[in-house]
Design brief:
Length: 123
């Protein structure tokens, strides 16, 4: 009984990240503000997200000593901070775990910064 109460308290104190596995049409609606940004049409964004994360907000991939997070696979070496790379440039000024939830607002803001600085080939 004691372990159940402990587990319940942990669940209350640290709620789970609300992740989402998007469907293509649903994601198109969410990303509609990205359409045309930097000359990139919405279908290209949808294709890019599919090939980087499979439309899954909790995708985490290790890549050559760094880690990439979320739908857009945003890298912790340059764009966000985590406890893995303490000297991250953190250009988007955000914790990497923010890219793992179902709110894509911060993901899209950072993706636009990446596009402005690196172009679509960054993906």
């Amino acid at each position: 009984m004691m372990s159940f109460v402990s587990l319940l308290l942990v669940g209350i104190m640290f709620p789970a990240i609300q992740a989402k596995q998007f469907r293509k049409c649903e994601l198109s609606q969410v990303l509609k503000d990205m359409d045309g940004f930097g000359g990139i049409a919405l279908p290209e964004w949808i294709c890019t997200v599919f090939h980087t994360s499979g439309y899954d907000t909790q995708t985490i991939v290790s890549n050559n000593g760094s880690t990439e997070y979320g739908l857009f696979q945003i890298n912790n070496k340059f764009w966000c901070r985590d406890n893995q790379i303490l000297q991250s440039r953190n250009i988007c000024d955000i914790s990497c775990d923010k890219f793992l939830d179902d709110d894509l607002t911060d993901d899209m803001i950072c993706a636009k910064k990446i596009l402005d600085k690196e172009g679509i080939d960054c993906w």
